[in-house]
Design brief:
single chain; 702 residues; alpha/beta; Nucleotidyltransferase, domain 5; CBS-domain; Beta Polymerase, domain 2; 29 helices; 17 strands
C-alpha cells in the first residue's frame, strides 16, 4: 500500500533513525554513526536494523567523543557519508522516517548531502518528541529519557545511534494507543497536529533544523477500471450449477464437462443445487488431468467423490466482482461457488468468466480483510478505500454504488474482527460460542450507505440465554473484543454506545423481541434514541437467520403500530442553516450535510418504509418503494433520491480529501470548493428539508 495521509499509524511501515555527530550545531556537525530500526504494523522489527560507523573526514572533538564514545580510531577504516547514506536509503526505501528531534538529523543529512554533491529529497517523517507533546503536554520535560520512563521503555545503548533509534521506535509504538485516544489515527492527522505545535517548530527553525513533518496533501488519483466495482457476482455467475453424486465415475463426470462445455462440476450427496455450500466438493479440469496422468485409464472408473476438493471456496451472490477477483488470486484458484445470504449454493463463477468480460481489470481492492491476521493488517486494507472511492467517482460510478462498496468492506471488517475475537477467546480457554448467534451491523453499513468516516454500530443476537446469564457474559466479552479490534483497525467506538459490548445491544432471541415490543408499544420519544437504525440491520457473521428473523419481527410489529412510526417522525426536525438573507450559515466555511440533508432524507425514508411495510434496506430502494405504492408526490420523493445521491457524492469526495490532508474527517463540507451547480443543488435540497416534518405527516397515513 502506498503511504499517504490516509495511512493509519498502526499500519505504517516506517524506519526509526538516529545519528551521532561531531557536535550539536547542525550547520557544522558531521555524522560519525548511523542507526536505524524497522517498524511494521505497530511493532518494532528488531530483526531489521542498520548500525554503521561513518568516517567524518575530520577529527572528532573530545567533548563529542565523551558523549557517544566514538573516537577517530574507531572510524578510521569506516566508509564516508556518501556510502553510509546510500546504505540508509536502501534500508529505509520509501518508508516514513521516525526519530527523536528528527528535525536535527534531517538538517545534518541535508548539509552532508550538499557537501558530498548528493541530492537530498526530504523524506516524510514524524518526530516522537512532538507526538508526545500532543499526548501529554504537561510532562515535566520532553527529553528522551523522560518520555521513555513515562512510557515504560528501557533505553539500551543511550547515545549510540542504534540504541537511540530503537528507543524512538519503541516510543512511537507505545504512543499509538494514546494518539488514537486523541483522535489522531492517520499519518496525515499526526502531521497536521504536529504542525500546530508552533512553539516547538519555531525553536527548531531557530536552531537551523529542518521542519520535522510535512504538510500532507491529497495525491493524484490513478485511473481505475470500474467494471469490477459496478457489477456483482450474480450478474455473471453460471446457474444452475452442474452437480453430480459422489458415486458417479470420473468418466461420467468428464462426459458431462464436455457436453456442457464447463471446466468444473460440483459434488454432493443430493446431486442437486440449492443445499448448504458446506455440503459440496469440486472437481476441476486440472483435477481430472492430474488423476489421469497419475493412474492412466483406470482413473476413469474412480468415483468423483474421492477426488473432489473440500472445503468449497465460495462468495456471496451480492458481492461485487472485485471481491471474487481478489479471493481467486489469494487462494490461487479458478472457481468460486456462489451462495445466497442463507449460505445455500446458487451458482458458480470462474476466472474465465471474469477474464472474458474484462481482461486486465485494474483491481485496487482485494480480499485482504478476509484473511487479515491482526488489527494492523485490517487497518492497512481499510485505508485503501479513500483512493478507491475518489477514483470510482471520477469514473462516474454512482455515489450510492461507491457507498455500497465502502459498506461491503465495513461489513467484511466487522466479520473478520469477530473471527479474530473468537479465536483469541478460544486460545485463552474461554471455549467456543455457547450457542448459535449472529453479529449485526446497524445504520449506514446495514443500508449500504457507509461513508469514509463511519463509527461502530453493531449488535449481537444469540439463540437463547438470559440477560446477565452465562451466554450473555460470553457474548459481552466477544462484543468488547470486537469493538476494540475495530477501533484499532480504524473504525472508532460509537459515541452513542451502539455496540454489542453494551448490554442494550446484545441479547437472546426472546430478549430482543421484548425490546422490539417495548419500543413499538410503550415507547416515549426520549426512549427512541438509536432505535431507528436497528431497522437497517444486516447480519454479517454467524447464523444469519437469527438476524433476518429479528428484522422480520421488528418490521411486522412496526408496520402494525402507526403510533411508533409517528414517534420516529417526531424526531425529524431539521434545524435551519439559513440566515435572514437566505444564505447558508457556515462554520469555518463548512456546512454539516449529515445534519441538514442526509439525516432528514434517510430518516424519512426509513420511518415511512416501516409505516407502509416496505422491506428494503437502502434509502434509495425505500423511496422507490414509496413511489411504486403511489404514496406521496413523485416530484418530492424523486428530489429526495437525487438529493441523497448528491450529498453522498459530495461527502465522499470531501472525506477522501480530508483524510489525505490530515483534517479530522467529518460530515462537514467546504462549500466554496464545490462547483457552482453543486452549491445550487445542495442549497435547494437543504431548503426542501425544512418541509420534511410536514411531508412526513402527510404521508404517514397516505
Amino acid at each position: 500500500m502506498a503511504t499517504g495521509g490516509a495511512t493509519p499509524l498502526i499500519a505504517l511501515d516506517a524506519t526509526a533513525v538516529d545519528t551521532e555527530t561531531t557536535g550539536l550545531d547542525s550547520a557544522r556537525a558531521r555524522i560519525v554513526a548511523l542507526g536505524a530500526v524497522g517498524i511494521s504494523r505497530g511493532k518494532v522489527a528488531d530483526e531489521r536494523t542498520l548500525d554503521l560507523l561513518v568516517n567524518p573526514g575530520e577529527p572528532i572533538p573530545g567533548a563529542a567523543a565523551r558523549i557517544h564514545g566514538i573516537t577517530d580510531d574507531r572510524v578510521r577504516d569506516a566508509n564516508g557519508f556518501p556510502a553510509a547514506f546510500g546504505r540508509l536509503l536502501e534500508f529505509a526505501g520509501s518508508s516514513v522516517l521516525v526519530g527523536y528531534s528528527i528535525g536535527y538529523d534531517l538538517a545534518v543529512f541535508d548539509r552532508e548531502c550538499r557537501r558530498a554533491g548528493l541530492p537530498f529529497d526530504k523524506p516524510r517523517s514524524l518526530c516522537v518528541r512532538l507526538l508526545t507533546r500532543l499526548v501529554d503536554p504537561d510532562l515535566p520535560d520532553h527529553s528522551l529519557e523522560t518520555i521513555a520512563a513515562w512510557l515504560g521503555v528501557d533505553i539500551v545503548g543511550r547515545h549510540s545511534a542504534l540504541g537511540d533509534a530503537r528507543a524512538a521506535a519503541q516510543i512511537f509504538v507505545r504512543l499509538l494507543p494514546a494518539l488514537r485516544g486523541q483522535g489522531i489515527r492517520t499519518l496525515g492527522e499526526a502531521e497536521t497536529a504536529c504542525l500546530d505545535l508552533s512553539d516547538e517548530l519555531a525553536r527548531g527553525h531557530q536552531a537551523g533544523w529542518v521542519e520535522p513533518v510535512t504538510r500532507p496533501a491529497p495525491p493524484a488519483f490513478s485511473a481505475i477500471d470500474p467494471y469490477a466495482y459496478r457489477h456483482r457476482i450474480a450478474d455473471l455467475m453460471s446457474h444452475p450449477v452442474v452437480t453430480m453424486k459422489p458415486a458417479t465415475t470420473l468418466e461420467e463426470g468428464i462426459g458431462r464437462m464436455v457436453d456442457r462445455k464447463i471446466s468444473a462440476i460440483l459434488v454432493a450427496e443430493s446431486g442437486e443445487t440449492g443445499g448448504p455450500v458446506a455440503d459440496y466438493g469440486i472437481v476441476t479440469e486440472r483435477d481430472v488431468v492430474r488423476r489421469i496422468a497419475a493412474e492412466g485409464r483406470q482413473a476413469l472408473t474412480v468415483p468423483i467423490g474421492t477426488i473432489a476438493g473440500r472445503p468449497l471456496a465460495s462468495i456471496r451472490a451480492n458481492a461485487f466482482v472485485y471481491r471474487a477477483v481478489g479471493r481467486m488470486d489469494r487462494l490461487k484458484i479458478r472457481h468460486l461457488a456462489v451462495r445466497d445470504d442463507s449460505g445455500r449454493l446458487v451458482g458458480i463463477v470462474t476466472a474465465r468468466d471474469l477474464l472474458a468480460l474484462r481482461a486486465g481489470s485494474a483491481i485496487a481492492l482485494d480480499d485482504t480483510i478476509a484473511t487479515a491476521g491482526d488489527p494492523a493488517a485490517m487497518a492497512a486494507a481499510w485505508a485503501t478505500l479513500p483512493d478507491v472511492a475518489q477514483s470510482l467517482l471520477a469514473e462516474d460510478i454512482e455515489a450510492r454504488t461507491v457507498a455500497d462498496i465502502v459498506s461491503e468492506e465495513l461489513c467484511g471488517l466487522t466479520k473478520r474482527a469477530c473471527e479474530l475475537a473468537e479465536e483469541a477467546m478460544a486460545e485463552e480457554g474461554r471455549g467456543p460460542p455457547p450457542g448459535p448467534y449472529a453479529v449485526l451491523v446497524l445504520g449506514s453499513a446495514g443500508r449500504g450507505e457507509s461513508l469514509l468516516a463511519p463509527d461502530q454500530d453493531n449488535a449481537i443476537v444469540f439463540e437463547q440465554g438470559a440477560e446477565g446469564g452465562r451466554e450473555d457474559i460470553w457474548f459481552g466479552e466477544l462484543g468488547a473484543r470486537l469493538a476494540s479490534i475495530l477501533d484499532i483497525a480504524g473504525v472508532p467506538f460509537c459515541k452513542g454506545g451502539v455496540m454489542a459490548m453494551n448490554p442494550q445491544f446484545r441479547g437472546g432471541r426472546a430478549r430482543w423481541r421484548e425490546r422490539v415490543d417495548t419500543w413499538i408499544s410503550r415507547s416515549r420519544p426520549e426512549d427512541l434514541l438509536n432505535v431507528d437504525i436497528f431497522f437497517d440491520l444486516k447480519p454479517v457473521h454467524g447464523d444469519h437467520a437469527l438476524g433476518t428473523e429479528l428484522l422480520d419481527y421488528a418490521f411486522e410489529r412496526g408496520t402494525a403500530e402507526p403510533a411508533f412510526a409517528k414517534l420516529l417522525g417526531d424526531q425529524v426536525q431539521p434545524e435551519s442553516p439559513f440566515n435572514l438573507f437566505g444564505g447558508l450559515r457556515l462554520d469555518e466555511g463548512r456546512l454539516d450535510l449529515k445534519m441538514h440533508a442526509l439525516f432528514p432524507i434517510v430518516s424519512t425514508a426509513r420511518l415511512l418504509a416501516i409505516r407502509h411495510g416496505i422491506r428494503a434496506r437502502s434509502t434509495h430502494d425505500r423511496l422507490e418503494g414509496l413511489i411504486r405504492l403511489g404514496i406521496g408526490g413523485d416530484s418530492d420523493l424523486r428530489a429526495m433520491i437525487e438529493g441523497h445521491a448528491l450529498v453522498i457524492a459530495v461527502l465522499l469526495v470531501q472525506q477522501s480529501r480530508d483524510l489525505h490532508s490530515g483534517v479530522r474527517v467529518s460530515n462537514r463540507v467546504e462549500i466554496a470548493r464545490l462547483r457552482p451547480e453543486q452549491r445550487s443543488q445542495l442549497k435547494d435540497i437543504v431548503q426542501r428539508m425544512q418541509g420534511v416534518p410536514e411531508l412526513i405527516r402527510s404521508l404517514m397515513f397516505a
